Amino acid sequence: MRRRRLNVVALIAICCVPALLFVYLVSSEGDVTSDNFLGFTRREAKLAERVREVEAQNQLLRRQLSISQNHLMNFIVEAQQNGSNVHSGKESLGNIERQEKNGERSFVCVNPEPEVPKCEVIHVSIVCAGYNSSRSVVTLIKSILFYRKNPLHFHFISDSAAQLILQTLFYTWNVPGVDVSFYLADNVQGEVSWVPNKHYSGVYGLMKLVLTKALPDVLEKIIVLDTDVTFATDIAELWRIFHKFTSKQAIGLVENQSDWYLGKLWKNHRPWPALGRGFNTGVILLHLQRLREISWMQMWRLIAEKELLSMLSTSLADQDIINAVLKQHPYLIYRLPCQWNVQLSDNTLSELCYTEVQDLKVIHWNSPKKLKVKNKHVEFFRNLYLTFLEYDGNLLRRELIGCNNTRSTRVQEVLNAIDEDDPCYEFRRARVVEHRTHLYYIEYDYEPSPEGNDVTLVAQLSMDRLQMVEALCKHWDGPISLALYMSDSEVQQFLSYTLSSEILQSRKNVGYHIVYREGPFYPVNLLRNVALQQVTTPFLFLTDIDFLPMYGLYDYLKKSVSALGLESSKKALVVPAFETQRYRLSFPKSKAELLSMLDMGTLFTFRYHVWTRGHSPTNYAKWRTATTPYRVLWEPDFEPYIVVRRDIPEYDRRFVGFGWNKVSHIMELYAQGFEFIVLPNAFIVHMPHAPSFDIAKFRSSSQYRKCLKILKQEFVKDLSKRYSKQFTVEKRKLKR
């Protein structure tokens, strides 16, 4: 009864914290006169966010207080079973005194386990190689960030592909209190490449063996994780278990939750030597300093060489070798409670680990079947994983209040300098806001042709244009770089769509780069820049996803690039654009067939009826009879689709949504001295679709149009200053 009363008092006290915090903050904040576009002042918005954070912490505390006495007793029994890990019985959780009071059994922790100071940095190491592995690691990171309260430092052992992807992701994610370091696996690969390994992870599955060498010498301890684990609790709880290590223990592991190392899975199954059931290396507490002191690199190598004489190769990569080491040196092991690595392998016995799913700390999808593995509680596990998979990563940019670890970024400085009373504030903010970006979301494999004239098609799209990708791949054989603007949940729909498409699955030369949704505008020029930056060929074809190239355009452009000497001149090759109003179209197979369809009214020159100035300089009348390339003059508002060298200026990010996003880019190319050459036997056709949300805003909002006009004037002024030329956009001629 006394314990229940204490719990009630604690709950009441905790529930008062948000109210007290609210009163305190309101009394300490001054009046604010400027409102944001949601109607809240900036301070009110920050106040609401703080109250929500405290309430979330309270909910977590309530959950902890609601744990039944049976769960607590199970935890204590498990801690006592770990007694062999406690040196002289002096470590915490071994020191629990039983007291009998009023016929009831109670437990008093004499030496409670010390909490991790809230500003102590927790170090985490992950081996990540390749495109698919980079995808998996994001879900792991989300689950860690969701629960964490401490600063984190991630150490990635990676190949060059994963490093590019993850560096870009963390840079654009910009999560407070998170640092990232990368170590190229190539630098230590020679230390493990001699080990024969049957595991599908290849040489990267052995990289955990060399962490003492790969990571900085000043790093004392680290948590090592596989990419296929999901956290269900604060990682600081795992970190503080280091305090329970004896002076000799250096490796914390959970026992293997299958009979693999007992050799009972099939006839003549002969596993590597291990202590009992052995240990799973999906979650490791690694005391690097102690391992260095005992010459870990030499220790595991000698044991591996000896065992390989009879075993010939490893089946489970680093796990086999680590178990063999622990078999000979059992004093190194600290046995972690099984909840810290609930293993969902094909022959798992993990159900014996927990009484209820609420007890779980870390879920390990170590079966090749992943989410389809057979388990009584697989639905809970799957839902937990999918929650983080589709969780909006932008919400994880939470400040760690009180740690003084927030670094002022250039983006934040620019945002702070923008006048919030400016009617075009949202446009100016959209220009500098950092969008979380995940490059090469799906495996990419392409080497540019050795002739030096290869061309990559560059485009951008959102979820409502996804169906165009298949059609585009039917028309264009060459490499493609696509930037996709999507939410976290939409990305999973895209992945499912792509993996189920035979056409898209057969193409490894399409780079899919995810830019995550944030803010009220479609960042069209940011998307173009992201796709452009990942081009590896010497030339690129700048187009939009709504256009289908003529059949054979890829080969034609490569020949034109060589014939017109683009590699050594400032030339932009114009591909004439046409459109159809029909959703079902017999696509023209030649220029002659296209001209016939123009005469019949099945096709039209692009935007001739709504925006003539955009493409009229192409001179379609001349193109009808042209047999050789011809030069055209730039005019204001000209926005052709072009083939250019890769080293062109990027698109101006101030133009978001609808209006002047391509016009401004073509204008800068002209300012740099580019000539525009129309190709006589090339064309693209725009396919019909519903109007975008941004064009609807442009048409309905006078403020939108007013801001666009202001941005145009500012761009022209900046361009004139940069190139020492005088430009005007109101007349049809350019003044130099």
Describe the structure.
This protein has 736 residues and is of the alpha/beta class. It is 36% helix and 16% strand. The protein has 23 helices and 25 strands. A 9-stranded mixed sheet has the order 13-16-15-14-17-23-19-24-22. Strand 3, helix 4 (131-147) and strand 4 form a beta-alpha-beta unit. Helix 1 (2-28) packs antiparallel against helix 2 and helix 9 crosses helix 10. The termini are far apart. 35% of the residues are buried. Keywords: Glycoprotein, Golgi apparatus, Membrane, Signal-anchor, Transmembrane, Transmembrane helix. This is LARGE xylosyl- and glucuronyltransferase 1-like. It is a single-pass type II membrane protein. It is found in: Golgi apparatus membrane.
**Which class best fits the helix and strand makeup?**
alpha/beta
Span between termini: 89 Å
Determine Rg (CA atoms, Å). 31 Å
Q: Give the helix tally.
A: 23
Query: How many individual β-strands?
Result: 25
Shape: elongated
Low-confidence stretches: 20-40, 64-81, 83-111, 731-736
Estimate the helix proportion, in percent: 25-40%
The largest sheet is: 9 strands, mixed
Strand order in the largest sheet: 13-16-15-14-17-23-19-24-22
Mean pLDDT: 84
- What fraction of residues sit in β-strands? 15-25%
Indicate the topology:
Layout: H1 2-28, H2 42-65, H3 69-81, E1 96-101, E2 104-109, E3 122-128, H4 131-147, E4 152-158, H5 160-173, E5 178-184, H6 211-214, E6 221-225, E7 229-231, H7 235-239, E8 251-255, E9 279-287, H8 288-293, H9 296-311, H10 318-328, E10 333-335, E11 342-343, E12 362-364, H11 378-389, H12 410-417, H13 425-432, E13 437-438, E14 455-462, H14 468-475, E15 480-486, H15 488-499, H16 502-505, E16 510-516, H17 524-533, E17 539-542, E18 547-549, H18 553-563, E19 571-575, E20 577-579, H19 591-600, E21 604-605, H20 620-625, E22 630-632, E23 641-645, H21 661-671, E24 675-678, E25 684-686, H22 693-700, H23 702-723
Parallel strand pairs: 3-4, 3-6, 4-5, 8-10, 11-12, 14-15, 14-17, 15-16, 19-24, 20-25
Antiparallel strand pairs: 1-2, 6-9, 7-12, 8-9, 13-16, 17-23, 18-25, 19-23, 20-21, 22-24
Helix pairs in contact: 1-2, 9-10
